[in-house]
Amino acid sequence: MASGPERRRLFLERESYQRRRWADAARLLPLVGFVLLLLPVLLKTTNDALVYIFSVWALLIIAIGIVSRRLSQASPEQREEATPNDSSDPM
Amino acid sequence: MSYDLLALVCAAYVVVLFAVAFWADKRAEAGQVGWLNSPLIYTLSLSIYCTAWTFYGAVGYAARSGMEFVTIYLGPTLVMIGWWVFLRRLVRIGRTQRITSIADLISSRYGKSNLIGVLVSLLAVAGTMPYIALQLQSVTLSFDVFATNPGENLNQTAFVVAAGLAVFTILFGTRKLDVNARHHGVVIAIAVEAVVKLVALLAVGVFVVFAFAGGVGPMLDVIAASEIAEQSLKPERWTVIFALSAMAFICLPRMFQVMVVENYDERHLATASWAFPLYLFLMSLFVVPIAAIGLNELPADANPDLFVLTVPLAFDRDSLALLAFLGGFSSATSMVIVAALAVSTMVSNHIVMPIWLSRRQGGATVSGDVRDVVMLSRRVSIGALLGLGYLYFVYSGGSGSLAAIGLIAFTGMAQVMPAMIGGIFWRGATRYGAAAGLSVGLAVWLWCSFLPSFGHANLIPAAVFQNGPFGLSFLRPHALFGIEGIDPLIHAVFWSLLLNSLAFCAVSLVTMPTPLERLQAVSFVNVFQFSQGAPGWTGGEVDAEDLLMMSQRILGGREAQDLFISVAHGQGKEGYLPDVTPAFLERLERELAGSVGAATAHAMLLQITGGEAVSVEDLMKVADEAQQILEYSNQLEAKSAELGRTALQLQEANEKLMALSVQKDAFLSQISHELRTPMTSIRSFSDILMNGKDMSPDERQRYSQIIHDEAIRLTRLLDDLLDLSVLENGQVTLNEQSVMLDSILDRAVAATGRPEQELTIKRNPPMEAVPLYTDGDRLAQVFINLITNAQKYCDAEKQELEIDVDHLDGRTVVDFIDNGSGVSSDVQSVMFEKFARGTDHRAAGGAGLGLAICREVMRRLGGDISYLPQGKGTAFRVTLPKARRAAA
Description:
Chain A has about 90 residues and is an all-alpha fold. Chain A has helices at about 5-40, 45-75, 75-80. The longest helix of chain A is centred in the N-terminal third of the chain and has 35 residues, at about 5-40.
C-alpha cells in the first residue's frame, strides 16, 4: 500500500489531467458548433431548419454548461498551471 | 391606447431606470457591491448585444428571409462557447493592462501608438453612427404606431429620444473618470432593461404560439403554410453573416465595454458562456412564429419590422403591446447608452486628449486639473455622437430595413478584427501593419458599404455606381475589380476584410517593431505566463514630486496621494514620496491608463521622464530572462563539476606534499647525522690535542691527521651536497663538446689508479672508440665514482672490474661489472637515493651521495644509469646520451 503523500500526488495528477481534457473539450466545442450550425443551409423548409437549429443550439448550451462548470471548479492557481499548453506560440 | 398615455408610461419607465441607476451607484459608493458584481448581472449586461434591431428587426428579417435572421445570434453564441480560447485571453489582457476601450486595446498592443488609437476611434464613430440612427429609427417607428397621425413628427420624436439618452449617459456614464472603476448604475439599468426586453418578447411569443395558434404543433403548421415556409437559405449569406456577427460581437465598442472593461471577475465568463447563449436562444425562439402570424393576419402593407408591436395590437392586447413597446424602448436605450459611453471614452482619450496635450505649452507638467478637460471632452463626445446618429437618421431617411443598417455597422467594426486577432496571437504583428490594415479596411468599408447606405444617388451619384469614379470601372462600389453580381453585403465584407488582412500581414512582415511594441507583444500574446507584465520603464532622473503633481490632476488629489503613500510604504519608506523605480512608473502608468487610456498615459509620463521608456537592451534582458536562468543553472552545474575536479587535484597535491615533507624530514635527519659524525670526531681529537701537554709528536701527528681527514670528508660531503643541489635545480651549465669515449675512460681510470690498490681493470679498447658530443668532465666524474665504488665495496679476494662498451638499440652503453658478491635486492631499490649506502660500512668514506649525483648527472646529459642485475658481482650500466651530432 502506498504511503500518504504519494497517494495524494497521484490524485492531484489525475485531477490536473482531467482538467486539461476539459479544457480540450472547451476548445473543441466551438469547432463542433460551427460545423453543425453550417449544415442548416442544406435543409429545404423553414420548419426543418427551425427545429434543427434550435435543437443543436440547446445541445450546445447544455454541453458548454457542463464544460464551463468543470473548468471553473478548478481553483484559479490550478487553472493557471493548465494554460501554458494553449499559449505555446512559435517565435 | 392613447399616445399621451404611452408617453406617460415611457416617462415613468425612464424615471424608474434613473432611480435604479442612482440607487446602484449609491450602494456601490457605500461599498456594498455584493450582487452588483454577480455573474448574473454580467450576463444580463452582455444582452446589450440585443438592440432594437434585434427586438423589432429580427421579426422583420425573418418575415423577409426566413431563418437567416438567426445567424445574428449564432455568431455570438459560438464566441461565448469558445470563451476558453479567446474571450478569457481578451478579458485577462483587459484587466492586466487596464484597457479602457477597444481602441485602447489595439493602441496599447502596438506600442501605445496613438495613431492606431485614432484610426480605431474613427472607425468606431463611423460604425456606431448608423447603429444609433437605427435605434432612433426603431423607437420613433414604434412611437409612430401609436400616433394619431402616423408619419408626422418623426424627426421630433427622434430628437427628443436622442437628447434624453444623451442626458442619461452623461449623468451616469461620466460620474467617474476611471473607466475601469465600474459604472454600477449604468450596468444595473442595463440589466433591468435586459430582463424587460426578454420578458416582453417571450410574452408576445407565448401569446402568439399558445393563445393564438394553440400550441407548438399547430404553430409549426401555420409556419409551414406561411410565406416563409419555402425561404431557402443562401449558403454564402448564411456563412458570411454568421462569421460577421461573431466578429462584431467582439469588436463592437459597446460589447467590448461590457464584456472586458466592466468585467469584474474572469470567472463570470464561465457562467456567461452558457447563460448568454441561453438568453439569445430565448430571444430568438419566438421570432419566426411572430413573423408567420404577422404575415398571415396583418394587412400586406404592414411593416414587418413592427410585427412585435402590431400583432398584439391587432388582437386588442393593449397591455401586451405596451410591454412590447417598453421592451423595444429598453433595447434601444441600453444600446445607445453603452455605445455612447464606449465611443466617447475612445474619442476623448485618443483624439481630444492628445490634441489638448500637444497644444498646451509644457505639456503634462503645467498646472491645472486635467480631469475637468477629460470629463468635458467625454460629455461633448457623447452629445456629438448622438447628434451624428440623429443626423444619420435624418439623412439616410429610412434607407432600408433595420437589419441592413445593422449589418453595415457590423462590417465597419469587424475591420478591427485582423489587428486584434493578430495582436493577441501573433508577436510579429507591428503597428505599421495594424495601421495599414485598419486604413485599407476603413477605406473599402466606407466606399462599398457606408456611403452607399445613404441611398443610391444621395452621396454617391448613380453614375459612379454604373461606371466607377472618374470612369475607373474597377472601383465601382458594388463591383470592385470588375467582379459583379455579388450580394452588396457579402461584397463589402469579403473585399474589406480580405484587403485589410492582406495589408496587415504583409506590412507586419516587412516592418520592425519598436522595443516597447515588442514588450507589449510579449505581455499580450503570453498573457497567461506573464500576467504581471514586463516593466516598460527603466527609471531615470525623474522627480517624484513632478509625478505627484501630474497624477493629482488626473486621478484627483486624494487618490493620487493615497497611491503614492501606499507605494512609498511598499518600498519601506516613511513619508509621501516613493522612489521612482521602474515598477512604480509601471504602476502609475497603469493607474493613469485607467483614466485617460494607455497611449495618453504613456505620452504624459514620457513628457515628464524625458522621453526614455525602454531600450532594446532592457527588452533583451526581459525576453531572455528564462534563457538566462537556464544558462545560469548550466553554468552552475559546470562550475560544480569543475570544483569537484579541483578538489580531487588538491587532495592529490596534498598527498604529494605530505610525502615530500616526510622525505624532507628524513633527508634532514640523515644530513645532520652525516655532518655530526665527522664533527664529533674532530671535536674529541682536538680536545685531546688541547689537553695533551705531554703528548708525543707521533700521537700529535696521528690525531692531527685524523682531524684533517675528517675535515676533508666534511668538505667533500658539503661539496657533494652542493653539487647535487645544483644538479637537481637544473642550474648546472654543461660544457658540451666532441670527445672520444676511450679518452674519458682513460682519464677516469688514471684518476682512480693508486699504486697500492689491487683492483684490476679489464677493458676492451676496440669497442671504446666511440665519438661523443657531451660534457666530458661530468661523464668522467660518473665513471670515477663507479670505479671508486668498486674499489670500496668489492669484497672479492682479488678485485676485478670489467668495463664493457656495447651498442643497444642505437645507444651506447658502458657496463661496470665487478667480481664481488653483488647487492641485495632491497638495497638495489634505494641505492640511487640520497644517503643510501651499502650495508657494509667498512669503507664509509663517502656520504652516500655518489650514486645519487651520478644519476642526476646522467639525466642532465641525456642518458641514464641503472643497476644491472646479473648472476655475479655488482654491475652498473651507464647509458650514454644519443650521439646528437657527429664528431666535429
